[in-house]
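Example 3.2
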Amino acid sequence: MLDRIGFSERAQFRGPRIAIVTTANPAANAEFTTTIPLTEAWQLLSVTVNLVETVQTPWPSLTIKDASGTLVFQSQAGTAVRAATNTSQITWGAGLPQFGATADTVIAGNLPENLLLGPGFVIASLTAGIGANCDYGAASLLVVKYT
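Structure, written as C-alpha cells:
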C-alpha cells in the first residue's frame, strides 16, 4: 500500500503515469523548488541536480512541505559538507543509501519508498552554507503522476 501524505483518498486521482519534471534553473545563491499542481498527486522516485561551488562549503538537503507550508520530510545528501571549488551531481532516491564525502563529485541522499505527495506540496533544496558562489542547475524529478 502506498504511503499517503496530504490527502485522504487516492481514488480521486487517475493514473498512474511516469514523468520527468524539471524545475526552473535557479540563480546563484538560490535553492531549486517545484510545487505539485493542485490537480495532481505524485509518487516521488528520485531527484537529481548539479551543484557548482567555488568558495562556500555547502551541505545540501531535500525538503518536502505540505500545502500549508509544514515541513514533513528532510534528507541530507552526502555525509559531510561539500568542498569548495567542487562540482557535484546530487541524487536523492527511494531506497538509495546516503553516501559521498567532502571532495566526492557524486553524492546521494535517501527518500522513503512509496512516497506519495498531495496537491500543493513543495519539493525544494535547503542548503546549509549556501552563498553567492553556489549555483544549482535545474533539478530533474522522476515521479509517478496521478491526475
